[in-house]
Amino acid sequence: MADAPAEQTEKPKTRQRIHLLDELRGFAVFCMVFYHAFYSIGYFFNWDWGLVLLNFFSPAEPYFAGMFILISGISSNLSHSNIERGSKLFFIAYAVTVVTYFAVGSNAVIHFGILHMLSVCMMLYGILTKVCKLIPLWVGFILNAALFILTINVIRKFIGIPFLWSMTLPEEWYQTDFLYPLGMPYNGFVSSDYFPLLPWLFLFFAGCFFGRLATQKKFPKFAYKSHISFFSFIGRNALLIYILHQPIIFGICKGVQYIISLIAK
After folding, report:
1. CB-based contact 199:154 (threshold 8 Å)
2. Average pLDDT over the chain, rounded to whole?
3. What is the tens place of the pLDDT at every residue in 224-259?
4. Could you give the maximum distance between any two Cα atoms of the chain, in Å?
5. 3-state helix, strand, coil in the chain (%, to 5)
6. DSSP class of 56
7. Strand partners, 159
8. Strand-pair category, 158-161 with 165-168
9. What is the tens place of the pLDDT at every residue in 204-228?
10. Which of 38, 104, 154, 264 could disulfide-link 198, Cβ–Cβ 3.0 to 4.6 Å?
11. At what angle do helices 19-39 and 61-75 cross, to 10 degrees?
């Protein structure tokens, strides 16, 4: 019997894992866990040293959160279905909202946090994937990066770049009770974790365009090598760790608080 053609016997090549993305995602989650720990220690347990550390690290919070969002956009190119993935995350995000409402009350509930925002971004990218592919990689990346910069102050009621050009947004947009997902919170709006679509949607989509390099296997060689297994593990289990870290932090703080109360007696 003649040998089968080579193309029939060769197994399809598996996609090479980009370990650097896991490690950077893991580092971002690691930073967010500690930031949320300081938030809980300071605001829910009224320990002053928690507030001191929270205030110290607050300027860095948008950077590691931004890294996480950018990597999520890059990784969307490696997903089989962003609509399905986003839909699942959407329900998880609102389950977190319900849990936080009953756990800490309405004054600290998460109305539109990073999981809510990412879920909507994933579904939007899933819907717009074919349109996005018509736009050249670097054009899409630069355009979204520019829009991110221009809309970063939407929450402060203007768009543009301070001292260069800016435009004040209508006050009426901030007096509704339904535009807060876009970055236009109404007076009295409270969310202990708040990541509106503007400007973060554009950072996510910038990652989506940059992530085409991953599907084209054009990332530098060191990106495919494992460097820090600890951060890589966190990055591969980012969602589970992000969901579980707050209950664990609360449990530890409650335990410490109980021990301190026993000692004080």
Report:
1. yes
2. 89
3. 998 899 999 999 999 999 889 888 888 888 898 888
4. 88
5. 70, 5, 25
6. H
7. 167
8. antiparallel
9. 999 999 999 988 888 989 899 988 9
10. 154
11. 140
Instruction: Please tell me the predicted confidence (pLDDT) of residue 14.
Output: 58
CA 5 vs CA 9, 10, 27, 119: distances in Å: 7, 9, 46, 44
The partner residues of 194 in beta bridges, in order of sequence, read: 112
| pTM for the full predicted model | 0.89
Dig out the tokens for 7 from the structure.
Answer: 């193309």
Domain boundaries, the chain: 17-264
Q: Which two tokens stand for residue 224?
A: 């495919």
Tokens linked to 53:
């550390």
Q: What is the pLDDT of residue 16?
A: 79
> In the numeric block, which tokens belong to residue 213?
């390099």
Query: Using CA atoms, how far apart are residues 131 and 203, in angstroms rounded to an integer?
Result: 18
Question: Which residues are bridge partners to 112 per DSSP?
Answer: 194
Residue 158: φ, ψ to 5°: -155, 160
Give the count of alpha carbons within 13 A of 31, CB side only.
Answer: 18
Closest to 35 in 3D by CA, of 61, 69, 15:
61
Instruction: Confirm if 95 and 119 have CB atoms less than 8 A apart.
Output: no
Contact 28/65 with Cβ under 8 angstroms? yes
163: left (phi over 0), alpha (psi -120 to 50) or beta: left
Beta bridge partners of 161: 165
Predicted local confidence at residue 191, as pLDDT: 87
SS (H, E, C) 75-88: HHHHCCCHHHHHHH
Which residues is 165 bridged to in the sheet?
161
Instruction: Pick the closest to residue 37 from 46, 50, 48 (CA basis).
Output: 50
